[in-house]
Amino acid sequence: MSTVMAGGYPCLPGVAPGSPRRFGETDLLALYIYGRLLAFGFGGLRAGEYASRAHAGLTAEPRANSISTALTSDGGKRVVIEQDLQRPAAAMLPERIHFDIPAIRRQLQPSVAGSTAEPA
Question: What domain of life (predicted)?
């Protein structure tokens, strides 16, 4: 919550007072990326910054197959969105964290195993 209050995760739904707290698929993907970045040891503000960049990239390119956060050779930050998993451009960047968007989507899908059982 302190990250949101500090303005470090502006794309999170419901950040603006009185706005709805509804999460779409892109919001959930960015939230997953945020959580993974925290697990990798990123601070809340940096994780929020990268998650917001990922959110913007996924909003612009909803059919993306992968997204990478990377540090460039001059110390800059970059988010790379890719549609072709065969030739990832981000692989050329030395320090990167790569996210497989279709795999994350599969993880986020609700399990239907228990809900499809036929009555006996």
Answer: Bacteria
